Amino acid sequence: MVRGISLKIDGKEIKAREGMTILQAAKAKGIEIPTLCYDEQLKPYGACRLCTVEIVKGGRRRLVASCVYPAGEGLEVETNNKKVRKIRRLILELLLPLLPPPSDTVTGPIETLAEKYGVKKSRFKAEPTNCILCGHCVRYCIEVKKANAICFIGRGTERQIAFVPELAPNHCLACRECFSLCPTSKMVDSVEGIWGVCSLSIPISEKIKGKH
Amino acid sequence: MKGKRFFVGLRMTEKQRSILSHIQKNANLSKTEILLKGLELLSEYYSLGLDTPPLSLELKRLEEEAVHHTEALKRIRRREDALEEIIRELHDIDGIVDRYGGDPNALIQILLDIQTQFGWISKLAVMWISKRLRIPFSSIYQIATFYKVFSLTPKGRHRVRACLGTACHIRGGPRVMERIERVLGIGDGDVTPDGKFGLEGVNCLGCCALGPVMVVDDDYYGNVKPAEVEKIISKYG
User: How much is the ipTM here?
Assistant: First the structure.
């Protein structure tokens, strides 16, 4: 028999199964928590922090990423208080400079969320890499497709996505399954649009020198 | 066959030599083709369980690597020499991997040893480690690009480092760096076309009282004036 857990989300008593994360427990009961790096077919990653919620545990308050924090007995979760909303707005404000200038044709999930939470412009300098490093493409290729044809390289400000030049030209053009997971249009641009097909074979040593 | 323990001039284990001489006896192949076949069988020798199509792709890339090695090493002209050099390098890498018992958890240590011995992590090294440790290329690239100690391009024979730390900065470090760039004709992080010098601007070297500091290989030069840079570089050929 799987042990049940009872916790409180936004004042409501919720029952969850052991092993569920707060996000899973909330989703099961129809409580909306915004996410960017979460995908059902992939292991939770905790990168975007958009799913941040405030928990009260043992009298102390803490901000956690609900997609990775396990639902615990007697946990009190607040998914939409003032602090959490402020954090969401700031995260979106930090992500906006990474996107290309707003267009009439494409409204991705980030633009939609920005509008929903009232983030119109960002105080940060524009740096349109068109990649928010959510890792959807990398994680899909590793966990689901198991081709390992795309990976993260570098760290910190230099972190970026790179196709593995030994594998990508053979695998990626035929596959393209990660394209639909990308929240910006980076994947499509990478291969077909601005960069051209040759971007698949750029040696890693060249990529790490400067952000492409 | 040249001698008891040698095959086409390479030192090999008894088993490898017997495999390769067996091929030569039973087929009318050139030295190059035998070496390529030998690579194939070396892989099987390690029971890597590879399907043939990916392996032949790897061998094709190893051939291309031979051309790159010809460029990078300069003194090697013949394609067969390049392939022999590759096999020698593979043996060295094998030695390093065996020192850690082929344990994939020792990847960083193995990469460190390769970086120390060869000065860079070549594509050949990445491919061979990937096969021996059964790790995908992406994992190796992720680690090799994460840490600054690893280089995926060959470094020059002489490593020139100019300190860009705070104390040296105040005492004219950037001017020294600029002069080095002009003398060598390359920028920060590059290698001269002849492969002699590699230039790096580095963080504080810890000898601030001697600023501005410049290091070539293991030789430290303190209180460097831009005019002295050319003389220092010329000491190394």
Answer: 0.85
